[in-house]
């Protein structure tokens, strides 16, 4: 086998002193290698000489500290299995060679097959790159990189005398590697340049205040990002640290990309870019949508905090406008734009529909309140509260809730002092200063000594040194430094503080952005809006006597005043009998007098007959209509008109007001102080004004219809009185509820009631003619027809007055009374509990909507809606059948008065009455049975 020489083993042993460090005096770099195959051996002579010097094991020299011979590479690595081996050799892998060797090999393996004449390769060092990155990363140009206006991005700068494009080659790296390492830096610089270009556009004088505030906020964030970029840049750059530097800005690049996407200029798009919204509300909607997108997609919290900071800063001017619009602040140190445009309020779309409805109603209610009661506390007191603010934490929600409750308490306290005032002649009572309420001066503005306690986002402009006369005080603005009237959106450190302390997650009580908006930004404005509308409702029901206006409408236009409708029947209709109803047709009041006295003028009647025949119209006067309605030339002229008709209808209104309401028409000799009279007895003032607010109108209807001549031009048709309309002109504040649309609906109901009144008059004429006319032998079919028709008309009138109109109108009045009682009994500190009732009570426009719905229900119950045209026509034909029957009876009476009854004429009369009755029965069955067609 083999044997082990113990002497040789002892000679190969080495002993390392435990206290001496391992030290090599010769480095591997100084080692010279003769050949890869040379191996260092210990000669026998050396072995003998070394052996001769060894006296013991403890005195043997330390081989780790023995200096090797110069010029001879010795392997200082020892192991037990291989005592000696050759010197280290250079690696055979190409990737482990020096950079120059690798570049040469790569160029040799992949030579450029195409010669790029227009391409200039520029070889740079890490130091050159670092010096250019110090300005390029901040969005500026440098020696290596320039700005391309066409594509709006940073590119490698082309030499002045060069043509084509330039490619940078960094050290021994390839072109592609250099480009991939430099590209992130160029993207960061491009994003900053694009955002700064957007900032320049937003700062134009023609932009809205929210756009300028967004520009300042963007500039603050860009300055913060640029500061972090400068901090992260190293003082020196090496090839080894270049890769780490390229990835160290990834978070900032993501943030800049989010900002560029918000500004509608991302890297993936080229000019021209889409412009940001130029108006206030759409711009806030855009910012809110961006914030909601990043929060819902779990973006880094710094990115969401940046967008939130932009939204908060940009919405400050809108918040100021909102505070002024709803009366939280009467005046500011700088002018703000009103949110009201026409009849609408310009609010962002991210507000909930309920919030937009309440705020819009409050803005309109405040305008009406200022017209109705200019001295009202809500119109005169500045509540010393700053504009609405955002909140992002639970503590902010609690603070907003506390502030809201305190504000409601202060407002209710001031209103209760007004309502409890003992002086009835004084319209308002100024609330006393109290610690719990907002302290105000006599004009309603907070005293200067407490202005520092009020948190506002706008510093007061510096006072001018020059003193101006009051009429020239406006010119003092030109003494201020430029831009001093513009509030600074934030302090220098506010952006960094907001972003570092910004919301990481939304509060648990408001986990979504829409809920957060209602809980923080709109909490107090919504509460104040309800107080405004509630106060206006109190003014309407008290000082303006709104319910008295409703009473007038109900009595005159909706048929609830018996005296008015009785006198209107006497003015328009004749119910004594029809035997001589056509003896003097169309000749004014004198014709009616002659008819009642039984005086006939045969000559005039013949002339009227001939003229009517030449003009192609019926000679007969409309059944049920009073004679002498018109003083126009020509007998039988329809529609009637003239001064006599107007005087007759005016007397109807005045007599009804005086007899039924105890109101005397107003004149110039009435109370000298109408405002004091209104405060003492507002209902009396409304009734006095009713005489000239209420009046009849002649509607301008079409004279032609698809069927031919319009039916209202025929006095025998049921539509003959549709031209007559009773209108009511409410005063200025009241017309916000009793609008023209509601009055038009009442006009339709009034026309329907006029038809019923005429038909009821004809049934009375039928009764009087049937049972009181002497010498007439009425056939049984006539008695049956009269009974059925009169029963139907009586039931229809009772249904219309009690159910169709009465029940719906009484329900509306009961609702108003209930709301009024709840509003009066509500304590100072209680918050709204029933949102639906509070919506009705706090919004006077909801009362208008409820009144409009009530009128729609009345129209539907009366079969007057457009979708009820079929059944409505059936009801109209039923009423017209009454007129046809009345005309038949009238013709029979006139025939019997001039000669003896004829059997043929009687049979013809019975046949016509039978047809009318059968037609009436079919129409009646169609009304009560939906299966039958109403037009059968």
UniProtKB/TrEMBL annotation:
Gene3D superfamilies: Gamma-tubulin complex, C-terminal domain. Residues 548-928 form the Gamma tubulin complex component C-terminal domain. Pfam families: GCP_C_terminal (PF04130). Residues 27-61, 423-465, 663-682 are annotated as: Disordered. It is found in: Cytoplasm, Cytoskeleton, Microtubule organizing center. Residues 437-458 have a biased composition (Low complexity). Keywords: Cytoplasm, Cytoskeleton, Microtubule. Its main location: cytoplasm. GO terms for molecular function: gamma-tubulin binding; microtubule minus-end binding. One of its GO terms (biological process) is microtubule nucleation. GO terms for cellular component: gamma-tubulin complex; microtubule; spindle pole; spindle pole body. Residues 41-56, 670-682 have a biased composition (Basic and acidic residues). Belongs to the TUBGCP family. This is Spindle pole body component. It comes from Thanatephorus cucumeris (strain AG1-IB / isolate 7/3/14).
């Amino acid at each position: 086998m083999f044997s082990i020489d113990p002497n040789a083993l002892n000679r190969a042993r080495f002993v390392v002193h435990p206290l001496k460090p391992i030290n090599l005096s010769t480095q591997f770099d100084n080692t010279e290698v003769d050949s890869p195959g040379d191996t260092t051996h210990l000669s026998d002579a050396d072995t003998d000489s070394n052996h001769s010097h060894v006296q013991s094991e403890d005195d043997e020299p330390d081989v780790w500290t023995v200096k090797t011979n110069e010029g001879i590479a010795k392997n200082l690595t020892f192991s037990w299995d291989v005592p000696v081996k050759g010197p280290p050799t250079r690696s055979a892998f190409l990737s482990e060679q020096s950079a120059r060797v690798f570049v040469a090999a790569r160029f040799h393996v992949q030579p450029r097959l195409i010669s790029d004449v227009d391409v200039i390769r520029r070889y740079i060092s890490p130091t050159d790159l670092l010096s250019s990155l110090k300005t390029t990363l901040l969005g500026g140009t440098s020696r290596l990189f320039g700005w391309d206006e066409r594509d709006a991005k940073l590119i490698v700068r082309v030499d002045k005398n060069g043509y084509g494009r330039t490619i940078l080659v960094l050290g021994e790296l390839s072109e592609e590697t250099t480009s991939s390492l430099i590209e992130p830096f160029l993207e960061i610089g491009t994003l900053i340049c694009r955002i700064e270009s957007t900032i320049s556009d937003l700062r134009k004088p023609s932009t809205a205040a929210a756009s300028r505030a967004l520009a300042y906020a963007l500039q603050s964030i860009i300055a913060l990002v640029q500061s972090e970029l400068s901090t992260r840049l190293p003082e020196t750059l090496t090839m080894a640290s270049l890769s780490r530097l390229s990835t160290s800005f990834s978070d900032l690049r993501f943030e800049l990309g989010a900002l560029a996407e918000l500004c509608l200029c991302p890297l993936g798009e080229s000019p021209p870019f889409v412009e940001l919204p130029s108006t206030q509300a759409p711009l806030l909607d855009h910012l809110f949508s961006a914030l909601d997108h990043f929060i819902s997609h779990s973006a880094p919290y710094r990115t969401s905090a940046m967008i939130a900071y932009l939204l908060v800063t940009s919405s400050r001017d809108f918040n100021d406008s909102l505070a002024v619009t709803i009366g939280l602040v009467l005046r500011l140190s700088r002018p703000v734009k009103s949110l009201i445009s026409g009849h609408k309020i310009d609010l962002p779309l991210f507000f909930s529909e309920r919030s937009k409805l309440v705020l819009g109603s409050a803005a309109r209610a405040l305008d009406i309140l200022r017209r109705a009661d200019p001295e009202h506390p809500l119109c005169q007191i500045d509540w010393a509260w700053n504009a609405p603010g955002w909140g992002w934490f639970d503590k902010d929600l609690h603070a907003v809730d506390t502030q809201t409750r305190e504000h409601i308490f202060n407002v209710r306290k001031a209103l209760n002092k007004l309502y409890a005032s003992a002086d009835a002649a004084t319209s308002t009572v100024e609330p006393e200063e109290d610690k719990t309420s907002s302290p105000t001066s006599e004009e309603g503005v907070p005293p200067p000594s407490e202005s520092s306690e009020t948190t506002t986002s706008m510093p007061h402009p510096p006072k001018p040194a020059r003193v101006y006369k009051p009429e020239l005080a406006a010119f003092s603005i030109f003494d201020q430094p430029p831009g001093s009237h513009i509030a600074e959106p934030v302090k220098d450190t506010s952006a960094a503080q907001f972003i570092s302390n910004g919301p990481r997650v939304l509060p648990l009580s408001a986990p979504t952005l829409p809920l957060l908006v209602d809980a923080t930004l709109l909490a107090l404005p919504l509460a104040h809006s309800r107080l405004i509308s509630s106060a206006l409702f109190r003014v309407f029901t008290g000082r303006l006597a709104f319910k008295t206006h409703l009473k007038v409408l109900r009595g005159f236009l909706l048929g609830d005043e018996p005296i008015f409708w009785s006198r209107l029947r006497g003015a328009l209709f004749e119910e004594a009998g029809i035997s001589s109803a056509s003896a003097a047709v169309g000749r004014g009041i004198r014709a009616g007098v002659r008819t009642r006295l039984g005086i006939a003028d045969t000559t005039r009647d013949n002339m009227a007959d001939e003229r009517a025949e030449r003009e192609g119209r019926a000679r007969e006067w409309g059944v049920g209509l009073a004679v002498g309605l018109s003083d126009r030339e020509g007998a039988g002229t329809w529609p009637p008109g003239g001064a006599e008709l107007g005087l007759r209808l005016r007397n109807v209104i005045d007599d009804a007001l005086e007899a039924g309401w105890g109101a005397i028409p107003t004149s110039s000799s009435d109370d000298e102080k109408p405002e004091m009279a209104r405060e003492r007895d507002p209902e009396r003032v409304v009734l006095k004004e009713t005489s000239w607010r209420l009046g009849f109108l002649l509607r301008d209807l079409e004279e032609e219809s698809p069927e031919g001549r319009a039916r209202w031009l025929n006095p025998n048709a049921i539509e003959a009185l549709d031209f007559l309309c009773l209108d009511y002109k409410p005063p200025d504040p009241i017309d916000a509820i009793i609008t023209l649309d509601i009055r038009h609906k009442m006009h339709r109901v009034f026309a329907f009631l006029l038809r019923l009144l005429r038909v009821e008059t004809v049934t009375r004429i039928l009764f009087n003619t049937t049972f009181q006319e002497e010498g007439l032998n009425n056939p049984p079919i006539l008695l049956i027809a009269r009974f059925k028709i009169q029963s139907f008309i009586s039931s229809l009138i009772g249904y219309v007055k009690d159910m169709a109109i009465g029940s719906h109108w009484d329900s509306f009045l009961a609702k108003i009374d209930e709301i009024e009682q709840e509003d009066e009994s509500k304590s100072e500190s209680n918050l709204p509990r029933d949102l639906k009732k509070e919506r009705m009570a706090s919004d006077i426009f909801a009362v208008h909507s409820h009144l409009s719905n009530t009128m729609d229900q009345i129209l539907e119950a009366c079969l007057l809606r457009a979708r009820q045209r079929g059944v409505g026509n059936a009801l109209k034909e039923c009423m017209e059948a009454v007129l046809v029957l009345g005309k038949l009876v009238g013709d029979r009476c006139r025939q019997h008065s001039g000669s003896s009854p004829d059997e043929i004429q009687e049979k013809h009369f019975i046949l016509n009455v039978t047809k009318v009755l059968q037609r009436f029965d079919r129409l009646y069955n169609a009304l009560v049975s939906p299966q039958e067609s109403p037009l059968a």
